[in-house]
Description:
By secondary structure, the chain is α+β, with helices and mostly antiparallel strands. 20% of the residues lie in helices and 43% in strands. The chain has 3 domains: 2-24 and 41-73 and 81-103 and 148-289, Rossmann fold (3-Layer(aba) Sandwich); 109-146, no CATH class; 304-465, Porin, CATH 2.40.160. The strands form 2 sheets. Strands 8-9-10-11-12-13-14-15 form an 8-stranded antiparallel barrel. Strands 1, 2, 3, 4, 5, 6 and 7 form a 7-stranded mixed sheet that branches.
Amino acid sequence: MKRIVVLTKMSVFALFFLLLESCGSYLYSPIEQTKARLGEETKTTLDLKNLPGPKDKIVVAVYKFRDQTGQYKPSETGTSWSTAVTQGATSILLKSLDDSGWFIPIERENVSNLLNERKIIRSSRAQYSTQNGSGTENQQLLPPLLYAGVMLEGGIISYDANVITGGAGLRYFGAGASSQYRQDRVTVYLRAVSTSNGKILKTVYTSKTILSQQLDAGLFQFVRFGRLLEAETGFTYNEPSEIAVTEAIEKAVMSLVIEGISDGLWELEEPRKMAEYPIKEYLKEKEMIPKTDIFGKRIDNRRGALALNIGTTNLLYQGDFPDPLIKSGIELGLTLTPAPHFGAGVNFGLSSLSTKRFYHSKVAYLEMEAIYRLSPYASFSPFLKAGAGVITENRTTRFDFGNPFYGKIHFGGGFEILIKDNTGIFLSADYNYLFNDGMDLVEQGKYNDYYWRGNVGLHYYFGSKVEGKRKFDYNKKSITNF
Length: 482
């Protein structure tokens, strides 16, 4: 009974801490009505508003910026006839154009309503002039409508549901929690068309992910005979698709402005601001686009052909004496990377093999190894390694190499985290098997001596970067007109 009570308390505490983890969502629980509020700004709105000013604003017309996806909202209960994205993308685009400070948007989506209203105004003025006997020749004329030099076309062309899905859960003795997530993706295309000759001046393309998360926790426990404790809680967060579409459109407008500046379609009021934020950040992002996948992860090889390695080497003796100790030392190495996945290295290390009482030996080793990287393009890259080498004792001095050498092989694995393109932190562990049982001067048992090794250190890459299967050379070839 005491065990059940203790486990129940532990379950309640675990549930409590889980609730603390998600308390941010509970603080915004809709337990009462709220007032209407101004529309939210996205993460891109500030960048759009901070664009440097134009030399002359551009009059643009937008007739229709439509949802071209044909997608309906994903539903687990059956068919949903609600569209996956907003049908009012034209209004979002017009506001984004105005926020940028680069365009003068004019009404074209409902231009027939505008023309009808102007007819009503002219008819009313003519009727009023006739009644007053002033004549139509003195009638005040309406100013002409603005015409656009550039027309914007495009739309929301793709909505991909369930691009990534996943989750995790754990339940023990009636208490547990689980989480699920889903990521969708919306894509926007925007193009500028010259109204004088119909030429497409520029086309840009942006995308935005839409995240949905669910977290729930529960407790089902008998606290004593006939007494059942049951509790459950959870929350779900769905990123508003309208906010995601707005951010994608704002990014498209900003891209159109900067690409137009680069192509000489329009000019900055102060050309020196081309090197300032947010244009500078946009150009960096554009440079990285060919080197990343749809999730923003790097897919180019950042490692140089050569690497210097320095780190600690920690040896755990496993031989004929009991009570082994972990002893630390230093290891230096050089690694050659002929291909992103593969590497070959040579290492030299100084350390010790030791037990509590009976055995202590300073050792040095030299080895060669082959490395296979499981994710060579990612910042976090697990790897496997195997190799062979020799080890010897340093009996008189630290650099005494006059003693017998013992052959060995090793295999293991680890991971590397790139903190810069040319610098990585690595952690590895491997098993080292000696071909002889006399390393500790005692030969007994069926098995040879061996030891475990752990390494922590730095890789410094230099030299030319090794290209993988995907090439990133985008030098344009000259085109000859025949």
